[in-house]
Amino acid sequence: MSDTVTAATPVDEARRTARTRALISLYVGAASAVALAAVLVFVPTSTDDDAFHHVGDYFLTALGIPAVLVVAALLPALRTLQERRDGRLGMAGIVATCAGALVLTGMFVYGLIAATGSSLGPTYLLASGAMIIGVVLFAIGSWRTGLLPRWLLVAWPVAWAVGGLLPVLPGPSPLLLAAAYLAMAVTLPRRGTTTS
User: Fold this and answer.
1) How confident is the model at residue 1 (pLDDT cuts 50, 70, 90)?
2) Residue 54 has pLDDT above 50, yes or no
3) Transmembrane stretches, by residue range (predicted)?
4) In this structure, are residues 75 and 9 in contact, taking their beta carbons and an 8 Å threshold?
5) What is the pTM of this model?
6) Sign of the C-alpha dihedral, residues 185, 187, 188, 191?
7) Residue 126 is assigned to a structural domain of this protein
8) Contacts by 154-159, CB closer than 8 A, 24 or more apart
9) Which domain holds residue 73?
């Protein structure tokens, strides 16, 4: 007696790969947010925007790189899982987020090499704003897809703005982002398909 083995279709394989990419992005994002909170709370950092004075300045800047790249990797994976049903808003969100992530990554790498927190004028604020707007647009586009709970689609952009790029609360605010990422990982459907 033999068991019938069915080959995975390309669509199933794409969903499985997208789910894996999304989960890796979410877990790396949560870990980097927790590490960022730990640096903000326990490690001395410079308060000015000029040359680095503490080792914590290097950690703070280096942790910005995975923080922004995670979102740039997460959104396309979620779009695949949503079968591109997030429409133009989802695509606009990905474009804005990836553009902001590219600029911020370059700034963080430059900051590490030059040992400076100089934000190159308004560039940091504009790139951060692009990423925040991108996450908001993607969440709005994802509202009707059913992949993630709607309460999470509201909480995620808020947590990203408050705990990611513009830490409002000194120290613990990145933990809000870590919690949002973990909630997304837990609620992501196992099969990588959307629910109706």
Assistant:
1) low
2) yes
3) 24-46, 58-78, 90-113, 119-139, 151-169
4) no
5) 0.86
6) positive
7) yes
8) 155/180, 155/183, 156/180, 156/184, 157/132
9) 11-187
Q: What mean pLDDT value characterizes the chain? A: 87
Question: For residue 2, is it within any domain?
Answer: no
Residue 154, token pair as written in the block: 């509201």
Other Cβ atoms closer than 10 A to 148: 22
Give the 3-state DSSP-derived string for the chain, with helices as H, strands as E and coil as C: CCCCCCCCCHHHHHHHHHHHHHHHHHHHHHHHHHHHHHHHHHCCCCCCCCECCCHHHHHHHHHHHHHHHHHHHHHHHHHHHCCCCCHHHHHHHHHHHHHHHHHHHHHHHHHHHHCECCCCCCHHHHHHHHHHHHHHHHHHHHCCCCCCCHHHHHHHHHHHHHHHHCCCCCCCCHHHHHHHHHHHHHHCCCCCCCCC
* Residue 185 reports pLDDT greater than 50: yes
157 assigned to some structural domain: yes
Q: How far apart are the C-alpha atoms of 88 and 13, rounded to whole Å?
A: 24
How many angstroms separate the CA atoms of 115 and 134, rounded?
29
What is the domain count for the chain? Answer: 1
Q: Per residue in 55-72, pLDDT tens?
A: 888 998 899 999 999 999
* Any domain includes 169: yes
C-alpha count within 13 angstroms, C-beta hemisphere, residue 190: 0
